[in-house]
Structures are given as C-alpha cells and as structure tokens.
Amino acid sequence: MRSSHCILHLINFCSFLNIKLINLVLLLLQHGEIFHFNISNWNYANNYQHNCSILHIFPNAIGTRVAFVDEKGLAFIYNPANGQLIEMPEFCPSINNILWDLEDTENPLLIAYDNLRINVYRYFMNECILNNLSVIASSRKVDDMLKMPTKQITDKIQNDSILITNRNKNINNDTSRSNSLTSTKFSNDKADSNKLATGAIFGNCHLIGVTRLPNNHLPLCSINGELCMLSPTGRLLTQLLTTHQFRLYTKRKGLNIDEKNFKFTGIKKLSYHDMVTYFEQALKCGCFEDAEIFANHLDSQQIWSQLGMSCLRVMNFDLAIRCFRSIQDPGLILAVQRIQKIEDRCLLAGYIAMILKEFDKAQELFLISSEPIAALEMRRDLLHWEDALQLARNLAPKEIPFICREYAIEMEYTGDYINALMHYERALNPSSDNNEDKCLWNSKEKHQPSQSINIVFYEFFWFICYLVVCQISNASLVLYALYVKYTKMCNKHSSKQTAKNADMTTETDRFHPRISPMQNHKHLTIFPKHFIPSIVDTFFLEKRYDYNKEEWSKHISLCNAGIARNAIRLGDLKRGIELASTSGNSNLQKECADILEKCKHWKEAANLYELAGCYESAVIVNLKCKNYIKVSELLMHVTNTPRLHLQYAKARETDGAYKDAVEAYEAAHDFDSVIRLQLEKLNNPNEAIRILNKSHSIEGAKMIAQYFIRNNDQTKAIQYLVISKCFNIAFDLARKHKKMELYAEAIGLNASVSEYQNIAFYFENEKNWYLAGKYYLLAKQYEKAIKHLLHVPYQENSPAIDLALEVVGEANDSRLTHLVIVYLMGETDGIVKDARYLFRLYMVLKQYKEAARTAVIIANEEQINGNYRNAHDLLFSMVQELRQRNIHVPFEMFENLTLLHSYILAKVHVKNGEHLLGARMLIRVSESISKFPAHIVPILTSTVIECQKAGLKSTSFSYAAMLLRPEYRDKLDVKYRRKFETLVRRTDLKTDNVGVLSGDNGSILNQTNYSVTETSTPCPSCGSRLLETSLYCTECRSTIPYCVITGYHVVKNDFATCPGCQFPALYSELMKYVEIYPTPICPMCNIHLTRDSIRRLIDSNDILNEWINSLNVDICEDESNEKKNIELSK
C-alpha cells in the first residue's frame, strides 16, 4: 500500500511545472496552484489557488514564505501558515528571478533582478496593519460593523474572504505610488477558512531602491545587502547594493556598537549632512541597528524620536525603548513596556497606532480585537465624544449616560449651554440611545393624559415588584392607595392637556429636569417626594443595567447639578434654583449663586449663598440689593472681614442708623469713623475716648481735641492735642490759659529739643526754677539746668538736688561737677547737705570706690543712729552694684554688711522660735557691740535672754555680768536687773550643759536637757574642721562666705545660692526655710522664694572660689604690706 501510494504521487509529480525541495517539503507548481507536499508524512500540507497562471516560484531558505511571479508580470509573497498574500510593489514584468537574503530572516530582504537592474525589497512581517489597513469583511464599513454585536464582527472577519490593499508606505512615513487591488482566495478547506484573521493581515513589502546590474553578471545570493555574483569569466564577485551604502560606516551583525570601533569605520569623518543622509537610508531599508549607530553620533531628539517611532511601527520594542530612553521620555517608555507583552496582535497594533496618533486606524484595530471596548476608552480619553457615543451604542450601552455627562461638561466649559443642558438631560436616562429605553424613559414632550396612565401603570408594576422583593410591612395599604390613584387617572383619560407654566418660556422648556418620567407627575402624592422614582430607578438599574448604586447616585447628582447651572444661564431660574436648593450640595449652590450674581439676580443669589454657607458673598449681594436686615443677621456668622462691616457701616450711616453704623465701624476696625460718629452724632465723648485708648489713632485724637476746644474744656483739649502731635497748638493753648505744667506733663519725653526749650523758657520767666532746670536738662542745656536747679531753696529730700546729680552724670563735665560738690559742701549757702547726696554723686559719676567709701560712712551713721535696716539695704545695694561691675568690694563694707545681716537674722530667728540660731547671731553682734551704740543695753539684754533659752549658760553669765557694770546698770530694765543679779551669783547656772526655758510668772531661768555644744563643719576652702559660726579659717587664713538664712559659714557639699541676690546659702537650710514658712522671703534681698527656683549646685568650686577670693583681697594686700614693712625695717 505504501509503495503503491508513493508511485501514485510520483506519477502526479510529473505533471507539475516546477518543483522545489526545502526542508523535506516539496513546493509544486501546476498552472495557477501552489502545493506544499510533506515528504516525512507523505501528504499535502497546503495548497493555494491563484487567479491566473503562475510562472515561477521562489521560496525562502526555510520554506515559510514563497515569492512567485504570475503570467500578468506581477509578483507576490505568499505565507502558507495563514494564507496571507502580499504584492511586491513596482515589479517590472521583465524580472523573472527573485533571491531571498540569507541573513535577514525576521524582516527579510528580497532581490528581484533581470539582465539590467536589481530591485531591492524589504518584507516586514508585522507592518502592514499599521501602514494602510483595509481589512474589511465583504467591504463592510466600520459604521456597519458597529451595528453588529462584537462576536458577529469577529466571526464575519474569520469566515469571509480577506482583501489586502498594499499601499507602499515607507517606515519613516514617506508614501509612494499605490498598487492595484489583488484578491486572494484561500483553499476551500474548512479548517483553513477558520484561521484567525489577525494572522492574515500582518506583513508589508516595500521597494527600497534599485541597483544597476553589471553586464552579463549572474546574481547568486545576498548576505546583509551585499550581493554575490558570477562574472562572465567565471569569477565570484561581491558588490554592496546602492541602497546599503551606509554599511561602509557601520559594523556587521554580531559586533558590539562601541565607540572604540568607530575609528576603523571612518564614521567620525562624515559631515552632519552625510550622516543624516545615511541615517535616513538605513531607516528606509529597515536596518534599525545601523540607524541607531548614526543616531548615537547625531544625538538629536528629532532623530531619536523618528527612529523610535519607526521601530514601534514594525514592533521592534526593545530598540524603540532604547530610543525613547535616549530622549528621556518616561511616558513613552512605560507605555511601550506595558503593551509589548499583549498576545492579541490586533489589540497590540491598536495600542501602537494610538501611540503613533493614528486614532482612526487604532479604532479599527480595537474593534476587530478581543477587547473592542478599548476603542471606546480611547475616544473618551481623547474627548472625542461624538465618536464615543457612536461606539458606546453597541459596545457599552450602559456607558452612554456617563459619556453624555462628560460631553455636557465640555460643552458647558466652551459656553454651549443649550446643548450642554440637552446632554445633561440625556445622561439622566440609563441608556438614551436604546429603542426600548427611549419608549420607556426618554421623552422630550410633555406627557399626554394617556401617556401618564401608562407611566403610572408602569410605576405600579415595578413598585409591586419592589414591595414583593423587599417585603415591606403594611404593603397592602400602600398598594391599595396606588390602585385608587391609578383608577382616578383612568377616569380622567379624556381630560385636556395641562397648561404650561408661565415662567417656563425659554428654549429649554422641551427638556425635563427629572431623573425619570415619574418625577414630574404631581398626581403621585401618596408617597414622599422622589420616593417612587428613586426605588423604581434603583431596582430597574440594578437588575437590568447592572449599575452600581452609589456610582449611579453620584452620576445623577452631577447631572442635576449641570442642569441647575445651565437652566439658570438660559433663564429658567425656578428650575435651576429648585434643583440647587434641594441638592444639599454647597458647592453647587455656590456655583449657581455665582451665576445668578453675574446675571444680577441679587435676591436669588443671596439666598443660595446663604444656603451654601457662603455668608461673606451673601452679605455682599444683600448690600447690593439694600437688604440691611438680612445683612445684620448674616454678619453674625462672618469673622475677620472688616471690608464687609465697613460697607455695611457706610450704608447704615447714610440711612441715619448711627448706632448700627458705630457697631459696624468698630467691627471693621475703622476707629476714626467710630470716634467721629460718637462726637458729632451721638455726643458721647467718653465712648470716643475709650475707642481712642484702644486704637491710639492720631486723627481720632485730633477730633476729640477739637470737640473739647468747642466745649471750652482746655485741660482735656491740651492733653489730646499732645496725643495728636499738634504740639504748637497745644503750647499756644497752654500758654494762653496758663496750663503749661499740664502741657509739660502731657508732652513727657516724646517732644523735640525745641519744644523743651520753649517750655523751659516759659518756666524761667515764671521763676519756677525746678521745672526750668528740668526742661533745660531735657533740652540738653546742662549749664542752665544746673544753674536753675541749684537756685532752688534747699529742703530735706529735695528733688532738685537729685535732678542736679542726674545732670552732672549726663553732662560728664568736671566744671559742673565742681559746682555741685561746692553746693553739697555748703560753701554757697552755708548749709552742709546730707552725705547721701555725695554718695549718689559718686554713683552717677561711676566713681564706685569713692561711692563705696561714702556708703560705708553713711551706713555707719545710719547704724549709729539705730537705722539698721537702712544701713543694711544701703550696703547691700552698694555690694551688688560693685559685683555687677566686677569691682572689688572693700572688706570693711562686707564686714559691716555681715554684722548688720547677723542682727537681722537674730530678729528673724527669735521671732520664729529658733533660739539657738538667734543666740548665735546675737553673740556675733554683741562681740561688736560698740558698733551699735544706740541699742547696747537692749541688744545685750536680748543676748542674755536668748542664751538662757538656748542653754548657753556661760555666755549668758558673761553678758549678764557686763550689763551689771556701772555704765549699763542704770540703763537696765528693773524687771531684768534682779534676775541677772541672781544669775551672776549662782554657780549652778553658769554651765552650758543645761538650758533655760520660760517658767511660771515669766521666769527665764528654768533648765533644759539638750546639749548646746557647737558643731564643727569643714571649711569650703581647705576642708579643715571649724565651728559652724566661724567665718574665718585659721588653717587657710581665709574669710569664708556665710549662709543668708542661718548666718553659719557655707559648706561645699550643701551649697546653693539665692535666686534673687545670688548670695550663698546652705541648700538644706534654704529648702527647710521655704517649706516651713508660708511666705518665705530672702533676708538679704527681700525677694520671694519658691521651691522651684532653688537649685543645689553640685559643682560649686567656681562660685565658692570667686566669693572667697573677693573677701580675701584686702587681707592679702595687708599681709604683703606688712612683709614689705618688716623687710624695710631690717
């Protein structure tokens, strides 16, 4: 059977005109039919019937493509895999041989030649569909295809004959002449007729150039554009085709494109014009890798873009991405990367055409792809709304309302309000272009009574369905009420049509502002407003069109917003305002109010502004229509808008409502107007003054001053003239009415020198030496100031001397200083002035050492006179002044301050019941009792008593014996004399191991049981132990600072400072002092102390050393002076 079958085939082969053997496949030619015979399976794989006889066939190296020439002199390329037939353009009838390039296989190169010339063709396998697409089933237009369902379109394309128009268009968009239309018919095999259309529409062949063939030379093969020929002498020659001259400057396939290789090709020697020419030649030949080499050298954005788009057109995505990366276009890169993995070739080609901005071709490709909806998405993205609506009619009817809405938005932006309103109304219907929907939903005429009955019946039917589905309670009552309404409508079938509303007279009357027809029927009153349309629409849309409820609700609200805006623009105010008011959308209400305001419908605009919460705009519009009552109500909601309050205030002032105007002016911060109305209209100067104190307005002060001048109140007039900077007027008024002191007091320190001179001259003429000197000082005339101030009669605490001291300090003139010193010494009037003035003079002159000596003298005088607190404060202030200026404090001053402070601490401790601390401080004072001559006996008496209470018996005995001396005995109080005598006589009351407590009848001689031995603490300087009351260390021979609370010397590990005066203290005692007493104050500086303000100083070395060094400067100087004297004596 096998052998007989082979013999049968061999007999048949004898009848073929031409036979080719390619990869175990025989290509057989018999008249107008090409057969593919598979030798391995020994059967026919494919056959193709041409419309005329075929003369020659030329298969490629692997047999996947066949080029042939027919008897008409036309050449074609046939693809047996999908039956695609491509015509070779501009084929010369004299050509009878075709060669396939041996290297180019993806987009092969073809050489067609005769005896004189060679035609060079490039066959792009993936380019025809992007060049000139006319794959139309039975010449059906796209509009007709859109009327068919998508599945029918695909089936029709697959089963019908395929017509291919090969309009030869170059890759770089250069167009050449058109070829005739060639019809190819596939095999009648049913399997072949069912091949996908997408495989039959790819491919295109271009004539890229002509090369002259040398005489009597026979082309043998082509490799990468280089032709191998046999010469008449039998030699093999190679020639580069004229279409591939750029190969002289580029590397062959397989070599890297590297800058280091270019020096061997001479590409850098080319001019810019030649390089562009070769780039275009490589691009035309389809040699994109070679074109890339030239693009790298040209490095032009236009060149890269041209190459990238050409690569994209033939689906060379990798090279296209490299080109777009070279021009730094991330958008194109991402777009190509996203589409290159699409398997549907038509869909892929559609996206490529869209990138190439060939949108009509892209639409055709999308429609024959597996995702035709992409065409609709493209048109929507491009804002081609008419095309989008045409596509959506069959591809996605449920998108029609949304497209209408988007189209209406664009029309509204462009000012086409009539068509915008029409499309917004179309968008309210679920599908405006569906015939069934039109009869059911879309109606542009008012419903007749019969139509209303049908609609009510429709409503009734769907509402019953809704009630059944939702199982609404009491459904029977609702259904019965709806049935009664329907019966009444049937009885009124013959009634006349309802008259149109008088206010609906615009061109837009034919449009209905409804979501569905049911919304306009006033007879449906058994349900709340919008109840039936909303439930029926929701049920209908969810069941039929599969709309998302939230999405559709948002769409409806957007459409109603558009209808409201455009209805107002077209004059249908009632409709637009009603939609905006009931929408609950503040943005829509504001937009509609803006439109109404532009149309000068003030009242309606104001109401919508108020409804939207835009109170500022509402106030502005109400002011335009003079609705002041409403303005006053709205201003309560407006803050930080002085402009509105100012407009309202002016309007109210014009109407004579001055109180309202004053309130509005004040809210607008126009205080000058408030003052003006208060003075001129309301006669309320006190309120005007209050506003002036708040605003500090110069104009307001002028108005108040004028008011008081008119009312003969010269005192206030002068005051407010000065405030308003009208100094000349105020000066004349003060001089005229002898109120210069008032003027001088009002002018203060803010006037000019000339003003002060005028005032001083006036007081000089009035013989008021003090004020004359004061204002000469302010006028910087120091000599005259001193002259007049020293002319003032001397009195105790006279301010003239203090002012003279200030003049001396400011003038810094030794002559004036001498005058003052002479005056203080009493050489001018024979009266020696208080030493405190001399101290102040030294302080003013910044002679701090002299001031310190004077302060010590004054303090001693105060101390002698018994004014211990005054002496203490004087010395403390002087110590602080010197410390702030880093000047050494004299030891005598500090020693006196220590003694006075110990006396003050003794009084504090005795008052607070701290008898031991009080006794210790009194002992320190009593040791220098000669410095307290005014109170020797009282101080010693207190010392004896406190020592008895503290148990210091021996000390008490010593000072009691001192008091019984003749010089003090008579001054001692009688009630203490006998007790002190008993204390001195009894030996058992002289030891310190017992103390004294107050006994009966005021006795102070009772015993105590606690020890009064004084403890020792370390020296803060050297660390040696010494008594806690001792302020001098015998080891380091240093004076030690003391605690301002206890009077004991400080220690290093328990150190703090007063937050006010920065004097040292014991941290534990300072915290104890703050916690025990309700209102603790520092005994040194009298500042209030708080727990949070006190800090323990862990690292106290610096501060302690500073204090110790400042206290021991004088001691060191004295010691050094003694040493010098001893050495001199030797």
Automatic annotation (TrEMBL):
Domain IFT121-like zinc finger residues, every copy: 1041-1086
Annotated signal peptide: none
Listed GO biological process terms: cilium assembly; intracellular protein localization; intraciliary retrograde transport
Keywords: Cell projection, Cilium, Cilium biogenesis/degradation, Cytoplasm, Cytoskeleton, Membrane, Repeat, TPR repeat, Transmembrane, Transmembrane helix, WD repeat
Subcellular location: Cytoplasm, Cytoskeleton, Cilium basal body
GO cellular component, as recorded: cilium; intraciliary transport particle A
Main location: cytoplasm
Domain named WDR19 WD40 repeat: residues: 30-127
Gene3D superfamilies tied to this protein: 1.25.40.470
Every IF140/IFT172/WDR19 TPR domain range: 583-790
InterPro entries, per the entry: TPR-like_helical_dom_sf, TPR_IF140/IFT172/WDR19, WD40_repeat_dom_sf, WDR19/dyf-2, WDR19_WD40_rpt, Znf_IFT121-like
Membrane-crossing segments per the record: 7-29
Protein name: Intraflagellar transport protein 122 homolog
Phylogenetic lineage: Eukaryota, Metazoa, Spiralia, Lophotrochozoa, Platyhelminthes
